[in-house]
Amino acid sequence: MSAESQPDVTDDIDFVAERNSEEFQELRKTHRSFVFPMAIFFLVWYFAYVLLADYFHDFMSIKVLGNINMGILLGLLQFVSTFVITALYVRFSNSKLDPKASKIRERLEQEDVN
């Protein structure tokens, strides 16, 4: 079946009412409970690194292992933290967000059929 022959299910959905529904508000609250604190954490961590690099040259020049200094180590940890945050978000989304979003989707699909 081509996309042209499928009915547009979005024509029957009241998006404003759905946005205001208790289920959707709970989904948004759950999403924000993870995203906002994690974004703040990452931005603080990122700007701390930038400020250290700019104003604390002696600290960032401390040798840790061979030619590896604190600047290189903290810079690499920026990448590590990005991957960790991504993994945490995927786990959070799979366990907390996806079930709630699936319930909303299933309810909307049932309403569309009726």
SSE topology:
Layout: H1 15-19, H2 22-55, H3 57-60, E1 63-65, E2 68-69, H4 70-113
State the total count of DSSP E strands: 2
The unreliable regions are none
- The coarse overall form would be elongated
What is the strand content?
Answer: under 5%
Characterize the largest beta sheet: strand count, sense, and whether it forms a barrel. 2 strands, antiparallel
Number of helices: 4
Overall tally of domains: 1
In spatial order, strands of the major sheet run 1-2
Radius of gyration: 23 Å
Give an overview in words.
The chain has one domain (17-98). The chain is mostly helical and 114 residues long. It starts with 14 loop residues before the first helix and ends with a helix. The protein has helices at 15-19, 22-55, 57-60, 70-113; strands spanning 63-65, 68-69. Helix content is 76%, strand content 4%. The radius of gyration is 23 Å and the shape is elongated. α2 (22-55) packs antiparallel against α4. The chain is built from 4 helices and 2 strands.
